[in-house]
Amino acid sequence: MRDLGRTRRRMRAKVRELDLPRLRTVEELTAAVADRVGRPVRLVPRRMRVGEPSGFVERRADVDVIHFEQETSGLHQAHIICHELAHLLCGHLAEAPAQNAQDADGAQDADGSETGHVELSTIDPDMLRLVLGRSHYDAVAEEEAEILGAELTRTLVLAPGAGTTSQLAPALEHRKGQNV
Questions:
Q1: Where residue 125 falls among pLDDT bands split at 50, 70, 90?
Q2: Are 41 and 64 in contact (CB under 8 A)?
Q3: Cβ-contact 7, 146 below 8 angstroms
Q4: Average pLDDT over residues 89-108
Q5: pTM, full prediction
């Protein structure tokens, strides 16, 4: 049986080790994580299909791309992105594919032999990237990412005058005194 308390303590320690400056946006956090992991990270909002997760990381040779649901609240988007950033910080993803592995016809492997090229015109390229680009996460990895993602979200949301909480109060001011 896993020790959830121990995992929480480890993930909180990881946030402290990051020694992040005050960050006002998830984009600033993304840039800080990219610096930490030594790879560019790009955020791509998109409408997820039925059956897809609300977010995932696509590891490319030169960049990690975080796809996240665009049809949800800003707070939920921040949580999704922080969860995926946590996967990067915890090292849950497979190594990036070699740059030459993504070359077109005629590319060669390290031993000089030609790489195979297969046409998959009937498969949606986005779905193919999702299936092939994501590592299988076990329960421990998902638990770590969920906890670290929540801790990362907390660093953003609780920053004074920043983030979603500071935007939420004025947005609900007209509802003051009403049962919502």
A1: low
A2: yes
A3: no
A4: 66
A5: 0.69
- Determine the residue type at 140: V
Q: Which long-range contacts (CB under 8 A, 24 or more apart) does 95-100 make?
A: 96/39, 96/59, 96/60, 96/61, 96/62, 96/64, 97/59, 97/60, 97/61, 98/61, 99/61, 99/62
Query: 102-137: b or e for each residue (b if 16 or more CB lie within 10 Å)?
Result: eeeeeeeeeeeeeeeeeeeeeeeeeeebbeebbeeb
Q: Over the chain, what HEC string results?
A: CCCHHHHHHHHHHHHHHHCCCCCCCHHHHHHHHHHHHCCCEEEEEECCCCCCCCEEEEECCCCEEEEEECCCCHHHHHHHHHHHHHHHHHCCCCCCCCHHHHCCCCCECCCCCECCCCCCCCCCHHHHHHHHHCCCCCHHHHHHHHHHHHHHHHHHHCCCCCHHHHHHHHHHHHHCCCCC
How far is C-alpha 14 from the chain's CA centre? Answer: 16
* Tens digit of each residue's pLDDT (9 = 90 or more) over 28-51: 999 999 999 999 999 999 999 888
What's phi and psi for 163, nearest 5 deg?
A: 75, -165
pLDDT band at 116 (very low <50, low <70, confident <90, very high): very low
d(CA 127, CA 79): 23
